Amino acid sequence: MEVLQTHKGEVKAANKYIGKNIKIREDVKLVQGKGHYIDDLELPGTLHMAYATSTYGHARIKKIDTSKCFTIPGVLYVVTGEELKSRLSPFMEIATPPSGNLRDYPLAVDKVRYYGEPVAAIVATDPYIAEDAAELVDVEYELLPVVLDGEKSLEQDAPLVHENIGSNVVWKGVWDLGDTESAFDRADLIVEDVVRTHRYASVPLETNGMVASYDEGSNIITVHSVNQMPMFSLPLICAALGIPPSGFRMIVPPNVGGAFGGKIINYTHITLVSYLTRILKKPVKYVETRTENITFGTHNNERIYHVSLAARKDGKVLGVRMKAIDNCGAYPRYEPAGAVIWAQVVPGIYDVRDIYVEFIQVLSNKGPTGPVRGYSRVQHNFMWERMMNALAKKLNMDPTEVRFKNLIQPEKMPYVGPSNTIYDGGNYPASFKRLLDTLEYKKWRDLQAKSRPDGRLIGIGVAAVIDSGANNFSQIKIINKDFPASGNSDVGMVIVDQFGDIVARTGTTDQGQSHATTFSQIVAEVFDTDPEEIKFQEGFDSISNIWAAHSGAYASRSAVIAGTALYYAARNLKQKVLKIAQSIMDEPISDLDIKNKEVFSKVSGKKIPLAKVASVAWSDVGLLPDGIDPGLMSYAIYKPDFKFNMPDERNRINNTLTYSYSIHATVVEVDPETFQIKILKHVVISDPGTIINPLVVEGQEMGATLHGISAALSENLVYDDDGILLSSNFWDYNVIGAKQMPDLELLQDVTRSTSSVLGVRGIGEGGGGPIGSIINAVEDAVTPLNIKLISSNISSYDLFSLNRKNEVI
Amino acid sequence: MRPRPFDFYQPTSIKEASEILHSHEDAKPLAGGQSLIPMMKLRIFSPSEIMSLAKIKEMKPYISETGQILKIGAMATHDMIHRSDVLRNAVPVLSEAAGEIADQQIRNRGTIGGNIAHGDPSTNLSAALLALDAEIEVQGIEGTRIIPIDEFFLDLFTTALDHGEIITEFRVKASPHTKQKFMKVAKSDTAFPMAFVALNVGLSEGFVENARIALGVAGPTPLRALEAEKFLLKKRLDSEVITKAAQIATKDLEPPSDVHASEEYRKQLLSTLIKRGLSSFVG
Ligand SMILES: Cc1cc2nc3c(=O)[nH]c(=O)nc-3n(C[C@H](O)[C@H](O)[C@H](O)COP(=O)(O)OP(=O)(O)OC[C@H]3O[C@@H](n4cnc5c(N)ncnc54)[C@H](O)[C@@H]3O)c2cc1C
Question: What is the DSSP letter of B255?
Fold first, then answer.
């Protein structure tokens, strides 16, 4: 029997456990301090690594003297880029030459290219000593001019971040979709604008960390790390170290304290501790300090859009052309993947088909970028929502009305977009209307108008994001057709153990997304057994646990891909259980089913415990019917069909599987004297698809919303003109906490995903939804002051300065 | 993010503590650690000797009332001060200021003694105590002396404490009948404030009898707006007077500039806070 509602089959029974608010089993353990995080791991004899880092944004390394480090007892080894250059291969680059030729090592070689770049690594018997010694590394620098801004880095005489590639360009591409020429010809008006997104970080509570150890006997390096794409990173690490994957074991501890994308490019540290453990023959541990995490843990890409938007007088957008310049910092690492990932959301939530995008990714003397919650789409979504507002302003229309004119209509779902993305359902207009009703849009507009004469600055903003999930790696082929990654896959394993307990595993490890709870619900549904009874084994291990090469918790993929694999594994195992039970119970298989860890006959009412079946299957195997192998263990690997699986000559591809969306509406009030921005109301509507556990979905959505609010109003990585990062710790890099969180109203309009087997959509990222609604709201609020906003970050100090500038003019 | 090495002392009496400080040039007292430890971890400041005040028997945290005088032990935490009913009634500005320091965890550990001894212009309690005209009792090898708060702050992170002296107590006069207010602007609870003010104004039939206006993050030290205070005397707090007072208070200030606020912006914030604070005292 098909218990789950899948989009293929008829719904045979309502879900019993999927969709229920089942208590999140991980939480109690974690708040009691019973989790096992990377820093809890102390292997006997562990040594500790610390970095000496660059104090300049760009400088040639003339000399490094590390001799003073050894004056401190306990210092065992100091390594610099000079040594690594001859012992390691540079990391594999995703891009093809020329930028594919740039050389990236775990430590700066010849030059430092951003403030805070690791220059030397010290290994000592304890972390305090290692940090003391790091201060004694003496580097003689020759300062070089810095380039910080994406557009400046394209200029003819810009300083080169990597001289050997001849320019600062990492990758360039063009998406020429539909027919923008005709769209612009037909237009009543053209709106031109500049949109910028700022640099912020993912800032998980737990920073990056890893422990490497080396077993001489087996010649295997074992690394425990928080890496969130372990099998994607493994080849990069092995290639740099020059060892085969069989000589490298990758383990992720059962608990990881948040990632938000910021735990992928940590493979540089993993490579270094692996290198060191092989030399020192003792475990080597490195855990980023908070300052290091903020400085190089992973920054979000800055992007500048120059946009022309063609529209009709009634607000209908006909086409859009844009040039996007993306600033990825000093080393591409996982980039230029981000240079194509935005294309998951080419038209945003709007029915616009004639789109031309010229995309350039460039280097600069800033920290490396990589995935940060909403990776690469947050910028593009923000651009759309700013342009919709710019259009409304030009037409003197209400910004919500302009949006209604352009939303993709529900009857077009599933919607094949101009770049062949397949939006998998949802009713945008109905959701948007419900959002505005819940916000009490009209009421706020009235209050805004009424209170303006008293000097009150109230503003209302809306913005949508597509939170595309379960990515299709084939999009990387747009950049490099020979790069060996495409599609996506994950594995699930279900075991009924010798005692009849149901045990589940997947290849993915969570970072707080409650996999144990939700995955247990999926298995519980198949076995019609209380989810509390399902054991879930966490923790990734490339040698002793299951994995697929794409396994990992990133890109909102776990529920969709690993969840489906687990569902298939559970279903297959159930069949096997019933087959064995059939012979034990001597009843036809069609009469049998499972409930609460018992096999029962729907006809005779006879029952046997799962444990009985298990004992036959595992140990009393002489009793097994012919043709049935011993054991109750099923393994399934799932690879989704994206339909447009590979990019075509116009870069069109369905580059992710599910496309959940959320629309945010914010009311803010700006204090006319202090310019402080206060959120008066914030409502979110989303369509997560089939919900496995509402509590989990709510938690993710709340977190994503808070993250977006913090990015828009607070978090900002500020570099001075010399490339020195001014906000490198929590003193100056302010993350908004629970107390600053406004009351949120979270609404959902659930439709099943037409693309995923379980109807589920990925929702883990949230895509930075509030950034657009807040910036739009703030700009709306300060309309009387005639302030124009360009960036995705705004502070009271910025507003003060912008207002001051207006006054001066 | 880990401090440089240091030696650690844990005296149990003020006498012992004074001797340690006297004989160890570099020794630094440690109270709640909420200013000292972050600086040590960032290696901005690295004393080679740390002397904990936690076990000194005379310095157990207390808040007591003797007639009109309130006495607050230097080791009283921000949280104790914030929650004390006695203080809330007698010197509300101090209670408010303590409640607005960072978050609960920091208030649980941070002490009034450390907040003041740090000599940081962005500490809430320095402004509140300036507004209350507090007296500071300090003890050293040579005995006890009283320093009026107006003479305490000398420069950035520099106070009138001699090396070897420990703050033991703060004394403020109960002033339940004056109008008091603490107001701050900060990005978040745990972000350091961009600006704040502590006001303490005595009114008699609508006219200002006495006024103390203290400003935070307004210069190298916690400051009083002396001219504005003088200007207010004998005046009725109408909107014109209030605006003028705010102007006078901020016109010659040179607050610091950083990523969060420029000098100009800080002046505007201070002026706005003064205006709003004073306005709240009338009507
Ligand atoms: C994230 C964060 C946010 C903060 N935000 C604010 C804020 O908004 N407003 C605010 O006011 N403060 C803030 N603080 C600082 C906090 O209030 C500190 O607690 C306080 O400034 C120092 O008190 P302490 O007891 O922790 O002192 P410590 O850190 O232990 O010591 C501070 C200094 O005082 C000296 N000292 C301590 N006690 C004595 C004594 N009895 N006699 C002589 N010298 C002594 C020490 O030697 C040291 O130099 C914040 C702190 C953090 C970590």
Answer: -
pLDDT classification of A9: cutoffs 50, 70, 90: very low
What number does the ligand 1 atom closest to the CA of B120 have? Answer: 21
In words, the CATH class of domain A25-35+489-638 is: alpha beta
**Which residue intervals of chain A bear CATH 3.90.1170.50?**
39-144+208-287
For residue A76, CA distances in Å to A51, A85, A136, A209, A214 come to: 14, 20, 14, 20, 17
Say if A254 is an interface residue toward chain B (CB within 8 Å). no
pLDDT of residue A806: 82
CA–centroid distance, B192 to ligand 1, in Å, is 12
Q: What is the pTM of this model?
A: 0.96
> If you average pLDDT over every residue of chain A, what do you get?
96
Q: Is 80 exceeded by the pLDDT of residue B208?
A: yes
Q: Which fold has domain A39-144+208-287?
A: Aldehyde Oxidoreductase; domain 3 (3.90.1170)
Q: From the CB of B38, is ligand 1 less than 6 Å away? A: yes
Q: Ligand 1 centre and the CA of B7: distance in Å?
A: 20
Provide mean pLDDT across the span A158-180. 98
Asked if A132 and B192 come within 8 Å (Cβ–Cβ), the reply is no
> Treating both helix axes as pointing N-terminal to C-terminal, what angle do A769-781 and A377-395 enclose, rounded to 10 degrees?
30
Contact A737 B189 (CB under 8 A): yes
Superfamily of domain B179-282: CO dehydrogenase flavoprotein, C-terminal domain (3.30.390.50)
- Maximal CA-CA distance, chain A: 92
What is the C-alpha to C-alpha distance for residues A146 and A571, in angstroms, rounded to an integer? 58
CA distances, B140 to each of A316, A799, B153, B155 (Å):
78, 49, 18, 21
Chain A hits for B43, Cβ within 8 Å = 135
pLDDT of residue A427: 97
Question: Which numeric CATH code is attached to B62-173?
Answer: 3.30.465.10
Inter-chain contact A673–B2, Cβ cutoff 8 Å?
A: no
Per-residue pLDDT band at A359 (split at 50, 70, 90): very high
pLDDT of residue A808: 66
From the CB of B115, is ligand 1 less than 6 Å away? Answer: yes
Q: What distance in Å separates residue A803's CA from the closest CA in chain B?
A: 11
